[in-house]
Design goal:
The protein has one domain: Glycerol uptake facilitator protein. It is built from 19 helices and no strands. The chain has helices at residues 26-36, 41-49, 54-57, 62-77, 82-107, 115-125, 127-136, 141-144, 148-152, 158-185, 192-204, 207-229, 241-254, 274-295, 298-303, 308-325, 330-346, 355-392, 394-410.
Length: 415
């Protein structure tokens, strides 16, 4: 009897059935499978290289597409050289200067009881800055910090991250300084109403320290200074503080005199305690965290749509909210720091100007406002917002980070 011939090929030559397609989320499980297998580095990298990476980047809804696009944009921002990071930051600092100058002019003639209207006007104007920066290509420290999570995942070299963060921050500070300096040269700072309003906005950004200054003024310090500024033969109707202020303003206008700086910390009754400083630092830290949860969200938001008109609208929404609430934006606050500095410079030689007073204001603003605000901005925009979105979308972000790290190890360079 003839034996049946076995026509099947050897086992090693048999075609292995293809794995059933598991969809886009299956890439995450493929990554876990690769991690569990004992593969050589070359085998692992070869399989990683051949993964269908495009499936991760498209078609998952606004949130997932936004955070993947936001991470991708933040990685791209870190590829500029240190000098270019500074230049990007300077450009954005200029735009911030234009924005806050416009805001100050818009609200400087509103009454003291119009705080809500003042915030609303500023919240409508300031988002234009971020729209301009987005479309013109500037760099802000508050959006650059979104690269923190990709750096932790190995997608960005640490030296590139540090150069990017500190380069653009330095540029933002230099940019606002250059703008305020040019504003001084152009005569903007000669406008008493403008400089007074900008000064007051900066003072109120110091929370408890600002409250101490304001209460001291209302308690007699400012009024006493006005009385001292008046000549002996000036009539003060009814002897009230309000009349003293009105008489002083009339005297200055009639005699074409310059503006007298109203505060004098050496007068009796002025006192900034350690608790005031610590509470101000704490408030600025918390405010900076909340601020940059909103501001850094503009990066994933703009990545979630390809339409320019939609981009403009969605950028304005979080910026409107943070300005309306009155939260602290570190790079933008340096605008008021340089206002204080230029007040000091322009008043050199004026015997009525209190130099020590202004130096104290500048020091308090740097250490109690700018520094804790910048730290808060980093925490809110570098850890909290991207960290939460990464955890929620880990099936996609894990694949994105793995593939991006592979590309970074083999191709990425500065330009």
């Amino acid at each position: 009897m003839k034996s049946r011939k076995n026509n099947k090929p050897p086992v090693e030559q048999q075609e292995v059935p293809k794995k059933k397609e598991r969809g886009k989320a299956g890439l995450y499980h493929d990554m876990k499978d690769l991690a569990q297998k004992k593969l050589s580095k070359a085998e692992y990298e070869n399989q990683l290289k051949n993964m269908d990476y495009d499936k991760v980047m498209h078609g998952h809804g606004y949130m997932t597409d936004g955070i993947l696009g936001g991470f991708s944009a933040s990685i791209h921002k870190m590829e500029y050289t240190f000098i270019k990071q500074i230049l990007l930051g300077i450009f954005s600092g200029f735009i911030i200067g234009f924005g806050y100058t416009a805001c100050t002019y818009a609200v400087m003639n509103l009454g003291a009881d119009q705080n809500l209207v003042e915030r609303l006007v500023m919240a409508i104007i300031f988002p234009f800055c971020i729209v301009l920066i987005t479309f013109l290509g500037g760099g802000l420290y508050t959006s650059h910090v979104l690269a923190t999570i990709p750096t932790m995942k190995g997608c960005i070299k640490i030296d590139h991250y540090l150069k990017g963060i500190f380069g653009v921050l330095l540029g933002n500070i230099v940019g606002t300084f250059l703008f305020v300096s040019l504003a001084a040269m152009s005569g903007i700072l000669e406008d008493d109403a403008f400089i007074s309003k900008a000064h007051d906005i900066g003072i109120h950004k110091m929370y408890n320290i600002g409250h101490v200054i304001s209460e001291w003024r209302l308690g007699g310090g400012e009024h006493f200074q006005y009385w001292l500024a008046l000549p002996e033969n000036t009539e003060i109707a009814a002897g009230t503080p309000e009349a003293a202020i009105a008489a002083y303003e009339k005297f200055v206008a009639d005699n074409n005199l310059g503006r007298l700086f109203e505060t004098n910390f050496d007068l009796e009754g002025f006192d900034i305690s350690i608790s005031d400083v610590l509470l101000t630092m704490l408030f600025c830290l918390g405010s900076g965290i909340l601020c940059n949860i909103m501001v850094s969200s503009t990066l994933p938001l703009t990545a979630s749509t390809k339409y320019a008109s939609a981009t403009v609208i969605i950028i304005c929404l979080p910026i409107f909210l943070f300005v309306m609430i009155g939260l602290q934006h570190g790079p933008a606050n340096t605008f008021f720091l340089w206002i204080f500095v230029w007040e000091l410079i322009l008043s050199i030689g004026d015997p009525n100007f209190q130099m020590n007073t202004q130096i104290v204001i500048i020091a308090c603003f740097i250490f109690a406002n700018v520094l804790p605000t910048l730290l808060g901005n980093w925490i809110g925009g570098g850890l909290i917002l991207p960290g939460l979105l990464h955890i929620i979308n880990i099936k996609y972000t894990s694949v994105f980070f793995a593939k991006t790290k592979y590309d970074m190890d083999h191709y990425t360079d500065e330009y």
